[in-house]
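Hypothesis: this fold can be encoded by more than one sequence.
Test: take the structure tokens below, design a sequence, compare later.
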């Protein structure tokens, strides 16, 4: 067992990320890494997360599968871009803020931006 920089113990380093204050690399467990993403979303306007389907709808998660939001609204279920790639547009709710993104499909990484919308279907 080793002790990660977040203070939790693990078999191995799970997630590495940069400490914004010091610029040094630190090791985190999955739970603390997910919390760090949530903290960034509370103070920032951009996030990189994954978008996928569930048996009952959709969800937005961190790369290890921790759910950030399962209140997802698909704005446009898909179209082909000029380069023949698939695109899907959706919004999700995170702590009363509506975020939007356009991704390359289910299970894919996507960048999101905070919007000023009052509801998912605004
Ligand atoms: Zn931790």
């Amino acid at each position: 067992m080793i002790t990660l920089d977040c203070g939790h113990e693990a078999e191995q380093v799970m997630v590495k990320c940069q400490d914004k204050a010091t610029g040094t690399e630190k090791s985190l467990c999955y739970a603390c890494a997910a919390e760090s993403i949530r903290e960034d979303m509370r103070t920032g306007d951009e996030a990189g997360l994954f978008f996928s389907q569930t048996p009952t709808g959709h969800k937005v998660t961190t790369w290890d599968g921790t759910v950030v939001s399962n209140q997802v609204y698909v704005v446009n279920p898909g179209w082909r871009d000029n380069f023949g790639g698939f695109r899907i547009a959706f919004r999700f709710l995170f702590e009363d803020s509506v975020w939007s993104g356009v991704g390359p499909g289910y299970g894919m990484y996507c960048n999101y931006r905070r919007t000023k919308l009052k509801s998912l279907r605004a």
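The mean pLDDT is 90. The helical segments are 30-43.
Hypothesis status: open.
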